[in-house]
Design brief:
Length: 305
């Protein structure tokens, strides 16, 4: 590795100051699980590393404004094991549980993962399907960025070099909603997905019609891909197996995978269709289970006298 300066700010203000001083030559470092590899490969050569480890107030999970606020420095493992996340948005805990191994999850952070912007990562499809927003801050103030428009290319985002992700906001699901994240992982546990899919469905009150649907795919393009055409097939339509198959077919048309050691482009395209359908089925299944368990909790309905 080439030599670099190492700064350890204690406050967000100090981080802003360091970012301003070094400009695009500086790199923030959180867990270091992605950055250190890139530095060892000399793909990234910062003249200064700004460690976020000692910065106060960047970690933690809190219930606010109808959703969860997750600090940028919160680890994957903290999201996975948080009782609040498991209770409020179980899909989020389940998705972070699927990332690599406990060893990686204990160190990798939510903000670092998003800024890294590798289209093979697991959390982005779920976070986009849930309608998450990133809060980025710099010396000039802070701004909210919908995650849907956050990733622009391989390892590229809309973040400016002087910005830091301080928080991710994930809204709670509306009533009659549920989601699922599926990851096709035929090799090792700490490998990236060959294809991944997140689906969030909201049904009408009678639970017969798709009121809203979000479908987002990973590992099949230069960014995480929202399959809007597939969503449009379902919105306002009755819940039927044929419609799910049709959505899968549409999803195949929006992906742009590359051939690599995880599979050929043609294979990944097929799998994107299959995993879209399966993620939708899993989301509907989860919704059915949720309503069954809430009926059980309430007990049998009393007959009116
Ligand atoms: C062996 C291994 C297996 C893996 N398998 C998976 C997997 O199966 N699924 C998966 O999703 N991921 C996987 N990953 C990737 C892992 O999720 C990322 O490496 C991790 O999320 C990056 O987080 P970090 O805190 O370590 O970031 P760092 O390495 O510290 O930083 C990554 C990038 O983000 C920037 N950055 C860091 N924090 C912030 C911030 N708060 N604001 C703005 N920019 C910031 C850094 O400057 C850098 O450019 C794997 C990684 C390893 C090493």
């Amino acid at each position: 590795m080439i030599p670099f300066e190492y700064r350890t700010p204690k406050t967000l203000r100090e981080v802003h100051h360091e970012l301003k001083e070094f400009g695009a030559d500086a790199k923030l470092i959180a867990g270091g699980t992605a950055l250190v590899i890139l530095m060892k490969q000399r793909l990234v050569r910062p003249s200064c590393l700004i460690s976020l480890r000692s910065v106060r107030g960047l970690s933690g999970i809190a219930q606010r404004d109808g959703g969860l606020r997750i600090g940028g420095l919160t680890t994957h493992r903290e999201v996975e094991t948080s009782s609040v996340v498991r209770r409020q948005i179980p899909l989020l805990a389940e998705t972070y549980r699927r990332v690599a191994t406990i060893r990686v999850r204990n160190v990798a952070t939510v903000g670092g993962g998003l800024a890294h912007a590798d289209p093979n990562q697991d959390p982005p499809p779920t976070l986009i399907a849930l309608g998450a927003t990133v809060k980025a801050s710099s010396a000039n103030g802070s701004r909210l960025i919908p995650l849907d428009g956050f990733f622009t290319d391989y390892y590229e985002t809309v973040l400016n070099p002087d910005e830091i992700i301080t928080e991710v906001f994930v809204p709670r699901l509306p009533p009659n909603s549920a989601g699922a994240f599926l990851k096709f992982l035929p090799r090792t546990a700490d490998d990236y997905a060959t294809v991944s899919a997140a689906a969030v469905v909201t049904l009408d009150r009678a639970r017969k019609i798709f009121a809203d649907v979000r479908i987002v795919l990973g590992s099949v393009g230069t960014t995480t891909i929202r399959a809007r055409e597939a969503e449009a097939v379902l919105r306002g339509q009755p819940v039927k197996a044929e419609a799910l198959r049709e959505a899968g077919e549409k999803a195949k048309q929006v992906v742009d995978p590359v051939s690599d050691f995880r599979g050929s482009a043609a294979y990944k395209r097929e799998m994107a269709g299959v995993f879209t359908r399966r993620a939708l089925e899993a989301a509907l299944d989860s919704l059915a289970k949720k309503s069954k368990s809430s009926r059980t909790r309430k007990g049998p309905r009393r007959r009116k006298k």
